[in-house]
Design goal:
240 residues; 5 helices; 5 strands
Length: 240
């Protein structure tokens, strides 16, 4: 929150969190940003960054400089816990919904994501998998696209009960175009890659849902269990 000061204490103790994942036998796919979204303020960008004239999320060296510092700091917290070290971190997710909720699309977006991957590798993140969110027109290449499915959607633009989501059907369609539909035109909703060229993996099976001004979703354990079953039955081989 303060420029130049990284706080890894208390609930921000990333290293201890990874230790707990290892104790529990959980594999970790670490999301290192820089823009993590997660329905938090400014998508995770600190206020001081937005106050600068460096156009966060775009291709400029000042922004990449701040992103490099972040990657270096995160790596220092998790060093020794990568898969190659016998640790639980099997992969890295870069940014989040890039080209969907923020940033650039097209060739400039591809250039941006390639640069972030190069920076992550240079920081020390040598892992079996690199992923990026694939829905809603987000820029994926050169990563594995990871997908989403939700029981509810706080982004829906009405007050009515949700119709039964298509994501509960056993189907060969991998991309749930309802996710984040408030920010997508019909054209932008389309996935930017051929999903059949990649393993079928998810990173957001909606076992929870934030409130919005418009909707107050209640998601039950049964909602979540059935959603995961539908994804397994539809061919997903990694559930996040």
């Amino acid at each position: 929150e303060v420029e130049g000061r990284f706080d890894w204490t208390g609930r921000r103790n990333l290293r201890h969190f990874i230790e707990l994942c290892e104790e529990a036998g959980l594999a970790v796919l670490l999301r290192i940003g820089p823009w993590d979204h997660g329905e938090v303020r400014n998508g995770g960008y600190p206020d001081w960054l937005l106050a600068k004239d460096c156009n966060p999320g775009y291709n400029n060296e000042e922004y990449f400089g701040y992103a490099k510092k972040l990657y270096d700091e995160i790596f220092a917290q998790v060093e020794g816990f990568l898969y190659k070290d016998g640790g639980p971190i099997i992969g890295i997710q870069l940014d989040n919904e890039y080209g969907h909720c923020h940033g650039q699309g097209g060739e400039e977006g591809l250039k941006h994501m390639r640069r972030l991957k190069e920076m992550a590798v240079a920081a020390g993140f040598d892992v079996p998998m690199y992923t990026a969110t694939g829905w809603g027109g987000a820029v994926v290449v050169p990563m594995i696209p990871v997908l989403a499915a939700y029981a509810e959607g706080s982004w829906e633009q009405h007050l009515n009960p949700m119709a039964p989501p298509a994501s509960y059907l056993f189907a060969d369609e991998r991309d749930d175009i309802a996710v984040g539909s408030d920010l997508s035109s019909d054209e932008v909703k389309k996935c930017t890659v051929d999903l059949r060229a990649y393993p079928y993996a998810t990173c957001e099976i909606g076992g929870g849902m934030q409130d919005s001004y418009r909707r107050r979703p209640v998601v039950t354990a049964d909602d979540t269990e059935c959603l995961m079953l539908a994804k397994f039955g539809s061919g997903a081989n990694m559930i996040g």
